[in-house]
Design brief:
Bound molecules: NADP nicotinamide-adenine-dinucleotide phosphate
Strand content: 15-25%
Distance between the termini: 53 Å
CATH architecture of the largest domain: 3-Layer(aba) Sandwich
Structural class: alpha/beta
CATH class of the largest domain: Alpha Beta
Number of helices: 15
Shape: globular
Helix content: 25-40%
Number of strands: 23
Strand order of the largest sheet: 15-17-18-13-12-19-20
CATH superfamily of the largest domain: Aldehyde Dehydrogenase, Chain A, domain 1
Length: 531
């Protein structure tokens, strides 16, 4: 049994200087758990960042194989926590054990994939242009380029994934893989899980000989510590998942610094689903059931939850609505992650239902045990009323979705034109309809990071081709993903080396490196390796 310590992790040292502290909340029982978590002081923030800055010099020089061994050691230490980790996560989030088992597997797989990426090596995008001393009128120098780590990365874990998007999740994994020290601001909604995971990371770092300061974690149940970390001159990048308000506050802070730094903030998304008439006619009942399951999965607390469904008032609508309603009414209510998120869900859902011409279509009638329960719920509005009311375009975080019934596909296209950037957009259509409605398809392609056909947006496959990002305001930077191997690009920068002797170059850029991909021969760029 691993004991929760409740102290800040300043590298390998535990620290609890401040007087401010808080307790973990158990949403299902509406009660507080016994341990005390110490909020970091300004002095502890400075100490942590000084250590991270110092660690960068040595950690960034640890060979890729060493960093890979560190990531694998983290997976072993997380698994060694056994059921303690899952039980604590369930207490602090209200999420069922089975869901958390899946999330732990995902966390382990993510870290393992980064270890494999490091061993394979191509992620640094080594580019080698050898010299052409005899070129006229000017000789060409030897220039080689690769991606290098940026420096200490500040990680804000999300409330809805206490493992996969938290202390050793989608931000920390790639940041550490690239050679950056990581400083986590623990999410106050799961501080005990964060503590256990941080212990696992620290044990792995010590076991594999990583410099002290490669990883630190600080607590706070307010904004001071997060703000101080983002403003600290030693911080070089930020990874965040959470609300639009929180993400934008941190983004602005980072841009107002004397040295602005990149912030990858994954924020709100309503993940629209667009149903075209022929598909509706052919699959109405099945579609209703499928969408209801996606809307209510995990109490709707997924960034990919489908908050808007656009459909036409054509054949199949009634059958679809009946199936959709029946499934939602039979969905049991579920405990939400925090009392605040539950309160916010009921408030925003209530405000949506109070908007002119919006009516409730169905609400869950099956009540589960426990506090902070969210009832799955769907509402109805016409295309014209949706277009006229920007309030209806906003996310309601939880098991809620608004069905927008458009008179025809022209109105549907007009409604879709009002959507902002999204993590996902889903087109439900027969193949022939894709070419028949190019305007709708183009608009959805423009606003989405992942464009799905005939599926649901919930369920993110962790693989190299996944893009989990999207145009603003879904994220602060549409160029990047927070999931998959390319997520490492958030925490690196390119650097060129000109005329450096081979022996002094990083290994990845030395002559003979089979991954050096470009070579200029007679002014023609080739993709040969320099051997
Ligand atoms: P949040 O309020 O955005 O908080 C996320 C993290 O950022 C917390 O550690 C929080 O610290 C910190 N933070 C927030 N605002 C800050 C500010 N102005 N300055 C410094 N730090 C700040 O998100 P949440 O508590 O996890 O959930 C609230 C809402 O976020 C949900 O209702 C939902 O709308 C959204 N959400 C979205 C996603 C997604 O995947 N897009 C996931 C989860 C939640 P403190 O908590 O200590 O204040």
């Amino acid at each position: 049994m691993t004991t929760i310590q409740g102290k800040n992790f300043i590298g390998y040292t535990l620290s609890s200087e401040g007087e401010k502290h808080f307790k973990a909340y158990a949403p299902a029982t509406d009660s507080y758990l016994p341990e005390t978590f110490h909020c970091a002081t300004t002095g502890e923030v400075d100490q942590t960042m000084a250590l991270a800055e110092k660690a960068f010099d040595s950690y960034s020089q640890v060979p890729a194989a060493g960093r890979a061994a560190f990531l694998i050691a983290i997976t072993e230490e997380i698994m060694a926590l056994g059921d303690d980790l899952l039980e604590r996560a369930s207490q602090e989030t209200g999420l069922p054990i089975a869901r958390l088992q899946g999330e732990r597997t995902r966390t382990i797989n993510q870290l393992t994939q980064f270890a494999e990426l490091l061993r394979e090596g191509s992620w640094v995008e080594a580019s080698i242009d050898t010299a052409l001393p005899d070129r006229t009128p000017v000789p060409k120098p030897d220039i080689r380029k690769m991606l290098v780590p940026v420096g200490p990365v500040i990680v804000f874990g999300s409330s809805n994934f206490p493992l996969a998007y938290s202390v050793a999740g989608v931000d920390s994994g790639p940041a550490l893989a690239a050679g950056n020290p990581v400083v986590v601001k623990a999410h106050p909604a799961h501080p005990g899980v964060s503590d256990l995971t941080a212990q696992a990371v620290v044990r792995a770092a010590q076991r594999t000989g990583m410099p002290e300061g490669t990883f630190s974690m600080l607590y706070d149940d307010g904004f001071e510590v997060g703000t101080a970390l983002v403003k600290h001159p030693a911080s070089k990048a930020v990874g965040f998942t959470g609300s639009y308000k929180g993400g934008m506050a941190l983004y602005r802070l980072a841009q107002e610094r004397e040295e602005p730094i990149p912030v990858f903030a994954e924020m709100g998304s309503v993940n629209p689903i667009i149903v075209l008439p022929q598909y509706l006619k052919n699959n109405a009942a099945q579609l209703g059931k499928t969408l209801a399951v996606s809307v209510s999965l995990g109490a709707g607390q997924f960034c990919t939850n489908p908050g808007l469904v656009f459909i036409t008032n054509t054949e199949g609508l009634e059958t679809f609505q009946n199936a959709y309603k029946a499934e939602i009414m039979n969905t049991p209510s579920a405990t939400m992650l925090t009392a605040g998120i539950c309160k916010n869900y009921n408030k925003l859902r209530g405000e949506t239902l109070e908007q002119p011409e919006v009516s409730s279509l169905a609400i869950s009638t099956v009540h589960s045990e426990g506090e902070n329960q969210a009832e799955a719920s769907i509402a109805l509005v016409s295309g014209q009323n949706f277009i006229a009311n920007p309030k209806l375009h906003e996310e309601v975080f939880g098991p809620f979705s608004l069905l927008v019934v458009c008179e025809d596909t022209n109105e549907l296209q007009e409604a879709v034109a009002h959507l902002k950037g999204q993590l996902t957009a889903t087109l439900i259509a027969e193949e022939a309809e894709v070419t028949a409605y190019p305007g709708i398809v183009r608009q959805l392609a423009k606003i989405s990071g992942r464009f799905i056909m005939n599926g649901v947006p919930t369920g993110v496959e962790v693989c190299p081709s996944i893009h989990h990002g999207g145009p603003f305001p879904a994220t602060a930077d549409a160029k990047f993903t927070s999931v998959g191997r390319h997520s490492i690009l958030r925490f690196v920068r390119p650097q060129s080396f000109q005329n450096w002797p081979d022996a002094l170059l990083p290994d990845e850029l030395k002559n003979g490196n089979p991954l050096g991909i470009f070579r200029l021969v007679d002014n023609v760029q080739t993709r040969e390796s320099v051997r």
